[in-house]
Amino acid sequence: MGIAIASGSLAAEDVDVSKLPAAASSEVDFVKEIKPLFEKSCFGCHGAKPRAKSKYFMNKRETTLKGGSSKEAAIIAGKSAASPLVHFIGDLVEELEMPPIDKREKYPQLTKAQIGLVRAWIDQGAKWPSGVELAMPQ
Ligand code: HEC
């Protein structure tokens, strides 16, 4: 894998996607494998509340793909390496590491294996069963 230039992404600088963990090779189940990660590590800041950080609402598929105040798509279905959300969770973009580095005691960083799952889920079309919405973890 070479160095891809993600032009037009949120990143002001070029993003070296060769540093990303590889996508998992398994078929990913959104409800079982991705939803709990997003709820635990993201939803506290990107929930359905009007004050969601960056006006980025991760409760529904549509808004999770669409992105927030940057007006850039956060997820490009089928293309994990080109998806800004993946660059952020992979710590490839300075100042936009997600969850933010200083908040990781409360919102755990995704492991490499988990990032691989998120990548596979996006590569497989970011399938999200209709009617499913994220919620605060219990
Ligand atoms: C502690 C709060 C917090 C948590 C937890 C958090 N974020 Fe963020 N997120 C922010 C803030 C603040 C911004 C705006 C940063 C900026 O624009 O400088 C942001 C911006 C974003 C954006 C850009 C949206 C846009 O279009 O402007 C994406 C995508 C994103 N976060 C994804 C995630 C993901 C995925 C997770 C979980 C793995 C996550 N974030 C966890 C605070 C958080």
Write the layout of secondary structure elements.
Elements: H1 30-41, H2 61-66, H3 84-89, H4 112-123
Bound molecules: heme C.
Written description of the protein model:
The chain is mostly helical and 138 residues long. It has one domain. Helices cover 26% and strands 0% of the residues. It is built from 4 helices and no strands. The termini are far apart. The mean pLDDT is 91. It binds heme C. The site of heme C (HEC) has 25 residues, from helix 3.
Unreliable stretches covering 5 or more consecutive residues: none
Distance between the termini: 40 Å
The number of domains is 1
Bound compounds: heme C
What general form does the structure show? globular
Order of helices and strands: HHHH
Mean pLDDT across every amino acid position = 91
Rg, alpha carbons: 14 Å
Summarize the model shown:
It is built from four helices and no strands. With 138 residues, it is mainly α.
Main attributes of the structure:
138 residues; mainly alpha; binds heme C
